[in-house]
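User: MarR family transcriptional regulator, Pelatocladus maniniholoensis HA4357-MV3:
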Amino acid sequence: MSSQPMQETIGYQMVLVSKAHRNLVSTALAELGLYLGQEILLMHLWEKDGLTQSELTERLKIEPPTLTKMLNRMEKCGLLQRCRCSEDARSYRVYLTEAGQALQQPVHQLWHEVEKRILTNLTFEERLLFRRLLMQVRSNLT
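Assistant: Predicted structure for MarR family transcriptional regulator:
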């Protein structure tokens, strides 16, 4: 067992960074009327509108009941609508409304501002290294 205090471990620092990022993004999203995670769902629909609910659960890596709750809330806010699949009446496709489409630019801007803040005071080389290391750590954990 290591004698290193837990607060000095990389894992602990990752938790602190994750919480800080989550709080920053959550606050910014609230100004747009969104909850954390909804912007990721929207990003997938901006990339390919009309995904099925099962495709969304796979892409978001969440359970179907979690997606259903998210879709219900977003549909109630007028950001998207669900329509039965013509090829499989048991499935639904999810489509953006005009209101959902209109959030694309503000959400992208928000993410770019957060990215800029994350990378403040890092050189170009440090940014490249940081990205590579994060990708490696994610790969190690999955």
